[in-house]
Amino acid sequence: MPRVALIHATPAAVEPIRSAFAQAWPEPDLVNLLDDSLSRDRALTPELTEGIYGRFDALGTYSIAIGADGILFTCSAFGSAIERVARTLAIPVLKPNEAMFAEAIATGSRIGLLATFEPSIASMAAEFEADAAIARGSRRHGGSRRG
To answer: Which CATH class, in words, describes the domain spanning 3-94?
Structure first.
């Protein structure tokens, strides 16, 4: 049974993610890691700080230490910190928006973004635009999105 570390920056994310896994993929051993000071600290700064990056690195390292086979970060306000963790670990590390963005890009031409946490808007918009540009490029060249 795979172990998936779910890393949350708010307690509000725990139950919806647990329910989604129960419906779509109940087999994994889910481990919930919560640092609710992350969202409070992120709200106080316009950019991610080196301290926040370091905390994400530590959460990734801890996930490896507890035997995680993959990590899902559940807050979208930390995209570049999640990407840094993904580059350093040998297990899958996912941002919360990846599947949602891929589905939206594949099915719609006019798409709006809504967010419940204001600091996530800029990073979500940038990630979405980057994903959409990749999708447009692969459609023009007849390839798949992931290559």
So the answer is: alpha beta
